[in-house]
Amino acid sequence: RVRTARGKGRMQDVNLRRFFETFCEVYAPARELMAGGTPQGEPGHEFKGAPLRCSLIGAKWSRPGLLVTGEAAGSTYAFSGEGIGKAMETGLLAADALAAERSGDEAAARARYEASLRAIKPKFDLYETASHVNHRPWLTDLVVWRANASPRILRRMSGVLEETQSPGRLLSWKGIFKLMFE
Q1: What are phi and psi of 2, to 5 degrees?
Q2: CA neighbours within 13 Å on the CB side: how many for 39?
Q3: Cβ pair 117, 61 in contact under 8 A
Q4: Sorting pLDDT into bands at 50, 70 and 90, what band is 7?
Q5: Inter-residue contact 114 to 83 (CB < 8 Å)
Q6: Mean pLDDT of the chain
Q7: pTM metric for this prediction
């Protein structure tokens, strides 16, 4: 991130191709895969990326004749980038809403589905808050250092990634105190 004249941060321009080349230089398994493999796609366009829609933000969840699930609904966690399980979860919620409305009342099915997404939205909000750690490399390094030094903290951090621990507990003042001093 770089600071603008107004003091606000904005993302720095990053050459992702160069970033990937550097990653392969320092990470032996990636280097071996790239040395022994052939990138697929049009020459010069083998590697593509796109921004992730996260935290159930940025899309209408339904319209007549359509329930939006997965990445299209923004079901990726901002903190971890986990999206496959979340996509499956939203797909199951859509299926449940449709199955529950056997009368064929499309508006009721849509309302039920959107209510289900609103019910899980607070968890996405916690992971969105936790993602602020990712924007502070020094803090990320500190958390990783502490986790490597403490099996208990490593279990807590793993629990956040496995969704068995709330990221909200780690980001409370009490959680930060425990992270730093226990």
Answers
A1: -125, 155
A2: 14
A3: yes
A4: very low
A5: no
A6: 84
A7: 0.68
